[in-house]
Amino acid sequence: MGREQTKQNQDFWTRVAELERTTGVPRRLAQQVIAGQLSLNEALQKLAQQDRVESLMRKHELSRALATQVAMGHADLELVLRKARMRAHKEAHYARSLLDEAAADGRKVVFALHGGRLVEGAITAIDRYEFSLDVGQDEPEVVHKLAVKYALDPKDIKRVRRATRFEKDVKDNPRDPIVRPQDRYTCSDRRLFGYVDGETAVRVVSLEGERFQGTIQVMSRYEFILKLKGGVLLTVFRHALADLSEV
Predict the structure, then answer these.
(1) Which of 135, 160, 138, 159 is nearest to 149 (CA)?
(2) DSSP per-residue codes, 74-114
(3) Domains in the chain, please, with CATH?
(4) What does the alpha-carbon distance between residue 144 and residue 128 come to, in Å, rounded to a whole number?
(5) Is the pLDDT of residue 2 over 80?
(6) What is the pTM of this model?
(7) Are the CB atoms for 199 and 216 separated by under 8 Å?
(8) CB < 8 Å & 24+ apart, contacts of 80-83
């Protein structure tokens, strides 16, 4: 290597070091600027983007790839975070079942069944389509799961009755339990979680016209927990919905 080439190399690295010192641009980007591969403004933008990526990763626990997409404007941060919250909610609650929980701890539950019946008892057995309920008689009552519209704690019966309203059109034309899932009222997990996440006041109508208003606290695969005015919790079975809408 000749003297001229050596001097050029020394000058190059001197300029790189000076750019690092005066602008805070890391050496890799400073080399590209001095070599004419990037403008200083482009290098500063890249540096700001890298800082944004690191900040997003720390603050929101995003992967580098996802944080980079957000920083570049290719992904919406609020949508990304909502998806993460929904994923966490489903991991924590989606497999929950009031029937399984009540059977495990032996508590009594009041079930609102089609036909306007309220039955209270402790669950003694569960199979795929039915469960057995000890109602204080010689033989347990066998209840088909699709016959259940909603369930509540026995101590809340009076308060739930006071909170119950009726959707006249539905009450006058009640529907039987719907066997085929494709024929039931459609409410996607995304929509339902949107109500949970936004603490949105909703109106819930059953297939026989009972109407309740409150906020959805938890959703699972087959049911959701509705918090009524005064804090009463009602477990609503998704198969028994006739309508669900924002208030």
Answers:
(1) 160
(2) SS-HHHHHHHHHHHHHHHHHTT--HHHHHHHH--EEEEEET
(3) 3-85 (no CATH), 98-246 (2.30.30.100)
(4) 9
(5) no
(6) 0.78
(7) no
(8) 82/194, 82/197
